[in-house]
Amino acid sequence: MNNLVHYSSEDNYAIITIKNGKVNAISHEVIAEINECLDKALEDEKVVILTGQPGILSGGYDLKVMTQSLDAAKELVSKGSELSHRLLSFPLPVIVACSGHAVAKGAFLLLSADYRLGIDGDFKIGLNEVMIGMTMHNAGIAIAKNKLTSVYLDRSVNNAEMYSPKDAVAAGFIDKTVPQEHLLPTAIKVAQMFGQLNLKAHAATKLKVRKEFLENLQLSIDLDKKEELSFSKK
């Protein structure tokens, strides 16, 4: 591991922390390390708390890769979609403690969790793909449809509207906001609550509830691999 993602095992939970530069960019290496951490959490049978650095969960995919070529961008987006699929079907509860801004793939991480906490403050949360000229990929649309409230879906996906943490609750990106100093303590309390669940029943029920969605998401990921990723210039 390149130590872009840190794993800390506690009582009944594990904290996975993304630490990759100023914007916590989601790169191939970050995705690989998150997957390694998820493997470890599964081995340890720990509820997962995924978080970022102070002020930011993630600003999205690594721009160095996204601007390298369309094929390079497509490969990274595909791996990111597969990570979302894994999080959404993960046998153990997944909590995202959003430590600030969550943009593009950062926001999709929120949409890929079982429970999402945000913090009060001047932070932006949302999907800016259309704003930067990227036609939203099929998997992204599927994930957004699954979590966002219907009145906010078009505003978020088609119009690239960004939200404050408070408005992100109404939109469906996060479940609850707390003061910054309460973020991890609250996430830990939620993890302890989830730890009281029968985790086998949780895993089986999650897959039943999300069966149709997960099948559609996999079809969308496969379709994205066949289609060209589209970027437009103004």
From TrEMBL:
Domain of life: Bacteria
Matches recorded under Gene3D superfamilies: 2-enoyl-CoA Hydratase, Chain A, domain 1
PANTHER family: ENOYL-COA HYDRATASE, MITOCHONDRIAL, ENOYL-COA HYDRATASE-RELATED
Protein name (record): Crotonase/enoyl-CoA hydratase family protein
Species the sequence originates in: Tenacibaculum geojense
